[in-house]
Amino acid sequence: MTDIVAFQERLEAAGYIAEQSLAATLLLFAELKRPLLVEGDAGVGKTEIAKALSNVFDCPLIRLQCYEGLDASSAVYEWNYQHQLLAIKIQETEGRTAEDKERHIFSERYLLKRPLLQAITMPESPVLLVDEIDRADEEFEAYLLEVLSDFQISIPELGTVKARSIPYVVLTSNATRELSDALRRRCLYHYVDYPSLDKELRIINRHLPQIGQELAGQVVQFMHSLRELDLRKKPGISETLDWVAALMRLNVKQLDRDPALIAQTLVCLLKTKEDRDAVTREVVQRLVANAV
Amino acid sequence: MNTLHAKNSAESPGVAAEALLVARIVEFVRLVREQGFQVGVREEIDALKVARHCTVLDQQRLRWGLRSLLCGNVDEWQRFDQLFDAYWLSVNRQTRVEYSPRAKLDEREAPGRHGHGAVAEADRPRPGDDSDAGEGGARGGASRQEVMTGTDFRFLSDSRQMREMEQLVERLARRMRRRLLRRQRMARQGRRVHLRRTIRNSLRYGGTPLELVFKQRRRQLPRLILLLDVSRSMSLYSYLFLRFARGVLGAFRDSQAFVYHARLVPVTEVLRERDIDKVKEKLAVISLGWSGGTRIGESMQRFNEQYARKILGSRSIVVVVSDGYDTGPPELLAAQLARIQRCARKIVWLNPLLGRADYQPLAGGMQAALPFIDVFASAHSLASLAALESQLMYL
Q1: Which of A259, B51, B127, B240 is the most buried (most CB within 10 A)?
Q2: Using an 8 Å Cβ cutoff, are A208 and A241 in contact?
Q3: Considering only residues 243 to 272 of chain B, which have any Cβ-Cβ distance to chain A shorter than 8 Å?
Q4: For residue B172, what is the enclosing H or E element?
Q5: Residues of B43-60 as b/e, b for ≥16 C-beta within 10 angstroms?
Q6: Cα distance from B100 to chain A (closest Cα, Å)?
Q7: CA A125, CA B320: separation in Å to the nearest integer?
């Protein structure tokens, strides 16, 4: 257990507050070097895990943001065509053979490394963050799976590039689409829930240490009961931090002093019209009364 | 209960304890696999590594480690603790674990990926015969599905079969998107190069045609608008179609779902809820206090007036699921369907009764609707739902 606590502390030093169970998973992740799939609602700090890890392992973070239509040329590699064309023009007058020229323009000099290729050609293991994998197409998912199991990428013109080091791969997903079973099987899995009262309090204190303990406690209580409402988009941790920052800026010391002001600051937390309508002034007052 | 098998390991230290541990871990992994977790041989090996790494005697660590190793989605994540407790912490545990924990889970109505249907008792894997397991470890899933493919939904008797079918239906909807995409890609390969534009584009590369422009643009996936009849005459089918709708919503971007009975209610947001139990709760609340006959025409009118303008377009395929028993006037239904037809790409009508041999679409509402329908299909079984996919492709 001691190594888990130690790892937890290292994560905290890197700015990430993790439960013991998450720390245990991450420790295992470092040990087994299997990719880690992190799921959870938006705003619970999935992406932050990768950042904290790169801090703890003291290695670079390479990020691949997925989107619909992401393809190999923007995720793996691309030839620098313009540069190649120029090179051909320049070489026109030189008396080199065609093969020689070809070898020249398809050398690493003209290769644009995109995140995946970059990640496996690093001399030391980086943290590779594949963000929101559920947004990418199924084809890309299949390709990623192949890279993650072989840790090699084949480039027809150059040959196969083998990994110099195995990266720590963290994948995040908001579960907007069901991921393939193959990918899930390949990965360790962790589901990140909304933080507990205690955890959220520690996060607030970590990021905004100047906050008064009274306000911090009230905010955390308020957030918890707010998340229990039936909202379309539940506010995550980053929303909490935004809100706290706003409250501090407005010199609010206690939530129950000025209900109108509180109601105004809720723009930090409620991001859809339906939610704004659902959380009426009465609801806010009830939540505040509960929190105080 | 902090040490896992303190008694055993005290009796036989060293090698024997090690062997026992291996056996127990392997057994646990198989138990989890039988519960529908996607776990292969590789995970078995890694589980042993985890166990060694976690110094096993520490129960909490073992739990966390195995949980992140063996789970693959939220559903499994939430069920894991119960399985773990049942296996590792039960005092008078049987050596073979096939029965005890599952019974517990069934009471809880835990949704497994493929539960065990009563029909498939025969192809349940025997302990020890895992030669055909393959890396996937999802044994038996396919054959079980086969058995149920042709079954009319109304013949599903017990709750377990029902649950299984629900999952299959939801997955079917999600797979549909994958296949539609693949077929489109195949279709794309035959496209011809748009020469003029390719040459125009090659100007900036000094005349080298680097970017090929194709004549046919990629067809977009249809947007499905589902209108589900949840009246009493449809009660045998409606829940399954709601699950189907859930799958469709998950797979096709900006699809929408509505239910109607005496009136029309949008349920898109409700169905997007991740927790299936919550979905059930909310649906129950929505349908509370509904009575009187099915007013299909009126519901369609409400759809046209309130929602159609926003969501209907050239990509929209309206899928109506109903048996056509309408207590309102058939003329109203006809008029409303005509309006929908003008705005949407196609209208698909799924009538589960069509799967019965002696059925004739004679109900007043059905007769009125027929002229406006592009596809009239039965959708009373898994096979007929799957057949829908190819029809959607060519709409």
Answers
A1: B240
A2: yes
A3: 250-251, 269
A4: helix B159-189
A5: bbebbeebbebbebebbe
A6: 26
A7: 54
Nearest-angstrom CA–CA distance, B246 and B172:
11
- d(CA A149, CA A156) in angstroms, rounded, equals 19
Residue from B190, B192, B252, B229 nearest B322 by CA: B229
DSSP letters along A98-158, please?
Answer: HHHHHHHHTSGGGEEE-HHHHHHH-SSPPEEEEETGGGS-HHHHHHHHHHHHH-EEEETTT
Please check the confidence at residue B7 and state whether its pLDDT lies above 50.
Answer: no
**pLDDT value at B220 more than 60:** yes
Give the minimum alpha-carbon distance from B68 to chain A in angstroms, rounded to a whole number: 4
**Short-list A180, A237, A248, CA closest to A210:** A248
Identity of the residue in A1, A4, A188 whose CB atom sits nearest the CB atom of B69: A188
Residue type, B202: S
Token pair, residue B137, equals 């470890």
Q: Are the beta carbons of A120 and A163 closer than 8 angstroms?
A: yes
The model's confidence at residue A246, banded by pLDDT at 50, 70 and 90, is: very high
Whether B72 and A191 lie within 8 Å, measured CB to CB: no
The residues, any chain, with a CB within 8 Å of residue A188's CB and separated by 6 or more, are: A25, A28, A29, A32, A34, A35, A36, A37, B68, B69
Residue B60 token pair: 């909490």
Spatial strand order of the sheet with B256-260 comes to B264-266, B256-260, B223-229, B316-321, B346-350, B375-377
What 3-state class would DSSP assign to B224?
strand
Using alpha carbons, list the distances in angstroms from residue B364 to B333, B346, B347: 10, 22, 18
A215 pLDDT more than 50: yes
Determine how β-strand B256-260 pairs with β-strand B223-229. parallel
Q: Helix-strand-coil percent breakdown of chain B, rounded to 5?
A: 55, 10, 35
Other beta carbons within 10 Å of A161? 19
Range from A117-126, B180-189, B271-280, B325-334 that averages highest in pLDDT: A117-126
Structure-block tokens of residue A252: 């609010």
Tokens matching residue B208:
């080298």
Mean per-residue pLDDT, A10-35: 90
Instruction: Tell me the pairing of strands B346-350 and A159-162.
Output: unpaired
* pTM recorded for the entire structure: 0.65
Give the length of chain A. Answer: 292
B393 neighbors B348 (Cβ within 8 angstroms): no
- Residue B234: closest CA among B340, B158, B320, B163: B320
**Neighbour tally for B386: CB within 10 Å:** 17
Cα dihedral value B185, B189, B190, B192, nearest 10: 120
Instruction: List pLDDT tens digits, range A91-117.
Output: 888 778 888 888 888 888 899 999 999
Decide if B188 touches A, using CB distance below 8 A: no
Apex CA B263: angle with CA B259 and CA B267, to 5°?
Answer: 30
State the Cα–Cα distance between residues A211 and A213, nearest whole angstrom: 6
Res B115: pLDDT: 39
Backbone angles phi, psi at A73, to 5 degrees: -70, -25
The three-state secondary structure class of A28 is: helix
Of A24, A34, A184, Cβ closest to residue B61: A24
- CA separation for the pair B250, B255 (Å, rounded): 9
Q: Does position B2 have pLDDT exceeding 60, yes or no?
A: no
CA distance A60 to A53: 10
